[in-house]
Write a structure and sequence with these properties.
alpha/beta, seven-stranded parallel sheet
Length: about 375
């Protein structure tokens, strides 16, 4: 296929997890023979923080505003076999209208923020998609699986809501030998609704273990946060450094946004990255987690600081390594970018097959009416 993607960003991973997701998925699509063009709005906050400007596996085009899109990319979109619009794209709701009127191939809305999107739709403030646009896309590709898919179809009229979880690129994320300098680490942009869990599951254990070292990486944390002396801060960690970051931890922490805990079935890309790097993950709990990784065998669950300290004190090195190895096997067997590329192909073929069946039935019905 010729694939066109309108996404938040592929050029900058600053303050967002979309870039690494797009890079991994598009690389896998290209490896399977597809030609991909990524179209990104040229905005100042990503322009000033770019860590990726060209790729051997796709064409990257930047555009200034919506006015130039039809003239620059109208023919490309009209000829594409698949046109995909991602969540959080600036003026996405307006772009959705143009895409669904212009494209002749399969169209998909790729929601990398499904629980947040649904909450915003209910509040009427989802700038990047509107309820009226959802039925016009052939596919609603959701980072969240489980019962929410039926809600998207039944409440918002999507003809096909399908799970397309985030994934990991095993060429980029793999175990690395070296000292485990940090007892526990976390990577993620500051989020007000994640901060209480970060306080509970990392900062409080750090205060109670002054002889151990901890680390938090990610931008936009307020200056008002009182970081314990044994917690190192990294403002921004480019994806190229993630492997070394995970490899220097004895455990890594996965913390989930409130909307995603409520909806469930929303695994983080960081969870898959850490597991692929062979680091045991300590996570908060949410519905559907057991369908991704088995608690106690492939992932460790903590609710309180005491739970985290118990893991530190009671888990042997062998048990820690065994959990990490089991999680890595599970992720490489089910959650790589190649798995997602194949799933996406299957969903596109489903749309095409359904359209062909409808056309055949229409032809038969027309034949009967003329007989």
């Amino acid at each position: 296929m010729n694939v066109v993607v309108f996404g938040l960003s592929i050029t900058s991973s600053w303050g967002n997890g979309h870039a690494t997701t797009y890079r991994a998925l598009i690389k896998a699509l290209a490896a399977r023979g597809h030609s991909v063009t990524f179209l990104e709005r040229d905005v100042s906050w990503y322009r000033d923080n770019r860590d990726f400007t060209r790729a051997p596996y796709c064409t990257i085009e930047l555009y200034e505003d919506l006015k130039c899109v039809p003239a620059q990319f109208g023919a490309l979109v009209a000829a594409a076999g698949l046109v995909l619009l991602g969540s959080y794209v600036p003026d996405g709701a307006v772009l959705a209208d143009w895409i669904t009127r212009t494209a002749t191939g399969v169209t998909a809305f790729y929601d990398i923020d499904t629980p947040v999107t649904l909450a915003r739709l209910k509040q009427g403030n989802a700038e990047y998609i509107s309820a009226a646009m959802i039925p016009r896309f052939d596919l609603y590709l959701s980072f969240t699986g489980g019962p929410v898919l039926a809600e998207i179809e039944e409440e918002y009229g999507s003809p096909r809501a399908r799970a397309l979880y985030c994934a990991v690129d095993p060429d980029v994320h793999a175990p690395i030998e070296g000292p485990r300098d940090w007892q526990l680490g976390y990577i993620g942009t500051y989020s007000n609704d994640r901060q209480p869990a970060l306080e509970r599951l990392l900062l409080e254990p750090a205060r109670r273990c002054p002889d151990r070292r901890f680390v938090v990486a990610g931008p936009q944390y307020p200056a008002s946060i009182a970081w314990p002396d044994n917690v190192a801060r990294i403002e921004h960690l480019p994806p190229v450094d993630h492997r070394a970051f995970y490899g220097a931890q004895r455990y890594t922490l996965n913390v989930t946004r409130a909307d995603m805990i409520t909806v469930g079935y929303s695994p983080s890309v960081r969870l898959f990255e850490a597991a692929a790097c062979g680091v045991p993950v300590i996570s908060d709990s949410w519905p559907g987690l057991e369908t991704i990784l088995t608690p106690g065998r492939e992932i460790l669950i903590a609710t309180t600081a005491d739970d985290v300290l118990r893991i530190f004190d009671q888990m042997s090195d062998d048990s820690r390594r065994n959990i990490a190895a089991a999680a890595r096997r599970r992720v490489l067997g089910n959650h790589t970018a190649d798995h997602r590329a194949r799933e996406l192909e299957g969903y596109v073929h489903e749309v095409i097959a359904d359209a062909a069946a409808k056309n055949e039935e229409h032809t038969r019905a027309l034949g009967r009416s003329l007989a």
